[in-house]
Amino acid sequence: MSNNSFINAQQQVESACRILNTEPAVFEILKDVERMIEVSIPVKMDDGTIRTFKGYRAAHNTSLGPAKGGIRIHPATTYDDVKALSIWMTFKCAVTGTPYGGGKGGIVADPTKLSENELEQLARGYVRGLYKYLGEKIDVPAPDVGCSAQMISWMVDEYCQLAGTQALGTFTGKPVEYGGSLGRTESTGFGISVIGRQVAKKFDIHFEEATLAVQGFGNVGSHAVKYFEQLGATVQAVMEWHPDGLFAIYREEGFTYEELEANRGKFKEMDNVKILNPEDFWSLDVDIMVPAALANAIDERVAKLVKANIVLEGANGPVTTEGDAVFKERGITVVPDILTNSGGVIVSYYEWVQNLQGFYWTEKEVLERQEEKMIQAFDEIWDTKEKHDVTFREAAYLNSIQKVADVMKLQGKLS
Ligand code: NAD
């Protein structure tokens, strides 16, 4: 396994093409991005000096629709990372039948060290540099790590001013008052609960009797807990950072979302809880483990501790390649991030649809449509997994590459 994410992404495409026995042109086209634009963004800093920041935007493959993907603002963002992330977005969109290609953006900057004025210039400068390559039917960015809804609002405004027209659908992840969708905030966590219920059924587990442990009580983890509870499952443990360190709370009868919300940052003070260290958390005897905090949380060592039969990847890339190999050997089913946490991109798609129509849906309509789409994707991938006798993750890649290859064939891009 390389530590270059782009090479890893290429290897995943290659391995899926090999299993599917696709014609050579499929890998030849999918092994690199269709376009990668690099811009230099000048910002007049508050001290009067000018600093330039690197900005990137990659479109991996647009056979299924306009490029779609977040903008990551982080000092360690690299050219190759942005390309790799755009490849994974192609898979993520295709796997749920969301009509987009893979895209991703990046700005090499530490947003926590910039003032509001500097961030606004950065956001507007990014759009000015990339204007020609963005658009409702060309490439539709969204927020990612380090990019707030406020930054997206400045970007949309800059784009609309340059275009001389209202084009809210050029970006998603907007605040609801400025064309965002109801349901977007809870969509990723909600989707995780839907996938949890579906996979439990395959293991003959009644979800009402299922026990879960959740790592991370941020946006994704907390909403996952909320909907697990609504579906009748029992969340027995939650792990989070606290001022005095990282620990988990455990209660056999489970927690309600409401009490966890009310005790954010002070879980230790809750009644009737057992405090666990991270090792004990990962070793819990629960049915489903949900890493919903950050990438690379479960490596080889942690994977050996896990007793759950099912791991739902709520975060992006929480299981390392080595951790994945341990799970495969131990027969533990890992439901991959590109399906499990795809609720966010699905509702981004609904935001775009609502912007294009100028007609807005209720939260109930949004979540019902999301649920239907995710169940359909789950069933398709399960069938692929059974047909090819591969892991859930491999099945998700096979499924999405096949969809892209089929359309490229119709478009005459293949031999
Ligand atoms: P967030 O910042 O709201 O929440 C992350 C939480 O995890 C924080 O509360 C943090 O304190 C906690 N945390 C960090 N390290 C931890 C550790 N070692 N153990 C336990 N808790 C820890 O972020 P989020 O939006 O919930 O995103 C979480 C993950 O899901 C990320 O990988 C993100 O890329 C991915 N994701 C998010 C969305 C979305 O819609 N927000 C969509 C798809 C994927």
TrEMBL record:
Binding residues for substrate: K68, K92, S348
UniProt cross-references to CDD domains, sorted A to Z: NAD_bind_1_Glu_DH
Domain of life per record: Bacteria
Alphabetical UniProt keywords: NAD, Nucleotide-binding, Oxidoreductase
Protein name per Swiss-Prot or TrEMBL: Glutamate dehydrogenase
Site (Important for catalysis): D144
GO biological process, one term: L-glutamate catabolic process
Active site: K104 (proton donor)
Organism field: Nosocomiicoccus massiliensis
Record-level Gene Ontology MF annotations: glutamate dehydrogenase (NAD+) activity; nucleotide binding
Catalytic activity: L-glutamate + NAD(+) + H2O = 2-oxoglutarate + NH4(+) + NADH + H(+)
Taxon lineage: Bacteria, Bacillati, Bacillota, Bacilli, Bacillales
